[in-house]
Amino acid sequence: MEKYDIAIVGAGPSGIFTALELLRKGYKGSIILVEKGLPVERRRCPKTQGGPCRNCRPYCHITTGFSGAGAFSDGKLSLSAEVGGELPELIGRDKAQDLIDYTDKIYLEFGADKHIEGIGNEEKVKEIRKKAISAGLKLVDCPIRHMGTEKAQGIYLAIENSLRDGGVEMLFGAECRNIILENNVCRGIYVTDGKGESREIYADTTVIATGRRGAEWLEKICAEHNIAHAPGVVDIGVRVEVRNEIMEEINSVLYESKLIGYPAPFKNKVRIFCQNPGGFVSQENYDNDLAVVNGHSYKEIKSDNTNLAILCSHSFTQPFNRPIEYAQKVGELTNMLGAGKILVQRYGDILAGKRTWQKELGMSNVRPTLRDAVAGDITAAMPYRAMTNIINFIRAVDMVVPGFAGYETLLYSPELKFYSNKIKMDENLNTSIAGLHCLGDSSGWTRGLMMASVMGVLMARGILSGAADGVREEKD
Q1: Which residue intervals define the domain FAD-dependent oxidoreductase 2 FAD-binding in the entry (predicted)?
Q2: What's the whole-model pTM score?
Q3: What percent of the chain is predicted at pLDDT more than 70?
């Protein structure tokens, strides 16, 4: 029988920082880290070499492997508790900020850039905020430490080597199929390793940290074993791309314009997420051949464009309560229209009620950085409510950033974020199942690299103090 003190499923930031903080605090127990993908040094995407997306099997190298999906997108660390999910609501905002500051120092130790974007220029920030208020938007100040897509890989390689040198066993190419449950206590995990062999790994403490890629799987595990959870929100939206000249002031003053609005008539929350000055639009592939759009931001390589996500939050409770499936269907329909590729359309064509043609993109000022995106009509797949919210939000942003709602502004679809299944936990990250803890974006409590890393640090401290050995007390 394979037996460890701690089994961690998923080598994204939350899983990594659980193991790392344990080692930093002198933990002597045995730790195994199970990851579906490859070590960071072996993760390769053919598109980075100028080739087309090959829909790599058995998983996409951008979304799966050591360091997870976030490190291979834009490599940005948000240094404010105001962004990054709902974890501050669980543990308190001051504690969350202290943990961010602590975790940031660890990233610096492993080579993150010391420069912080989005600080200073207070008078210019005030001017931008004034415009945002006039447009009915909220501007969230958030300092950013930009590691960069290519630099982040080196940082996480150093962390990977540190974990290996510290005695953490890392099982790559292994898929967790289920948890081992005995008398409402989690005893470990069922795993299929890289050779296709089934293994039972027992552990006193099991940490599930499967990221956005594993959100649907974790939702099924919760339903199967009656792990207390609730359907949360799912984000459906587009990736917007404009010329750098349009975003010049925002890029230089804030670096990332975290604007939030509730546009009429539906009043859904709509926000800007993952802004990449001089960046590149990218494609990611999820299970069932679902192609979704994202953005990369390199430290050294720059384009003529800035891209960002506009995400519309949707909540479902009665009678339908499967938001992840809903978002997947939207993505599948969009993929169908694009023949399996990402779909792109000019904003002006949307307002004019026409599709965009490939030859029109070639004559535009804004040239797509995702070169194999297919010109078409995203409105034929995007739900009316989401599309209306996005259009009205773009009009509001144009009051803050003149030219943002230009005819040639590009909208790529689908941009989907699967965070929806929110695990019910206490402040020590105890679930309703003894011995089981769920972290990061798949838990529904975090969004992004920093807050997921913070949750890992918090998990490690709970293990060391013994506070994370119990069962969540029902407080509803």
Answers
A1: 151-231
A2: 0.89
A3: 95
